[in-house]
Amino acid sequence: MSAEAQSGLTRRPRALARNTGIYLVTDTTQCGDRGVAAVAAAAVAGGVRTVQVREKHASAADFYALVLAVADAVGNRALVLVDDRVDLYLAARAAGARVHGVHVGQSDLPVSSVRSLVGPDAVVGLTANTPAHLDAVRALAPGTVDYLGAGVIHPTSTKPDHPAPLGVDGFRAFASAAPVPTVAIGGIGLSDLRGLRAAGASGAAVVSAICTAADPRRSAEELVAAWEG
Questions:
Q1: 26 is in an annotated binding site
Q2: Which terminus of the chain, N or C, has fewer Cβ atoms within 10 Å?
Q3: Burial (CB count within 10 angstroms: exposed 0-12, middle 13-18, buried 19+), residue 2
Q4: Domain ranges of the chain
Q5: pLDDT given at position 12
Q6: Is 106 annotated as a binding-site member?
Q7: Cofactor binding mode, per the note (predicted)?
Q8: Distance between CA atoms of 132 and 180, rounded to whole angstroms?
Q9: What CATH class does 3-228 carry?
Q10: Is 32 annotated as ligand-binding?
Q11: DSSP string spanning 41-108?
Q12: Tens digit of pLDDT for each residue in 43-89?
């Protein structure tokens, strides 16, 4: 049996996406000269099992190249999701890259259309922040969305247009009402992880905590240990 088959990533990515633990969202600027692919590989070596490749300002060609580079660097050790760009996910998948799905926002393609495009086996995550968003998810066909990303937990410079912070208590109320597993995001640090897991988070997405760390692998190890502890 191949290492990839043993990992389960090709056989059950959607199941893995519903219990994500520490989840890296990449940021080209914060990764700096080390590069996104190298930081992602270090994070995965430290125990991160989901990497969302996010790039808000690059051309389609550069974003596509970045997705391929991250997928190659991560190999079969983690889920690789593409932020927003369903077309780039499909192109990377067609090229044979190990990519497993997409994460889309409220202003992107309707999530039901996303599911139709990516097929039944791909991971689909959706940003959601309000009761109205939850109502819309409940109205979808079962299996359309695998997980929600909810936040921000704290104010964060990585998303300057973020909604009002939820805090841990606000996240608890949101996650308890959500019909699918919910990942917390936004300004999350080590001290938040125990409370977020107790509040019902299926995972915690981080950007700066890994991308700006002097040692991304060590930072990932500490975050994973705090989450699992």
A1: no
A2: N
A3: exposed
A4: 3-228
A5: 84
A6: no
A7: Binds 1 Mg(2+) ion per subunit.
A8: 15
A9: alpha beta
A10: no
A11: HHHHHTT--EEEE--SSS-HHHHHHHHHHHHHHHTTSSEEEEES-HHHHHHHHHTT----EEEE-TTS
A12: 999 999 999 999 999 999 999 999 999 999 999 999 999 999 999 99
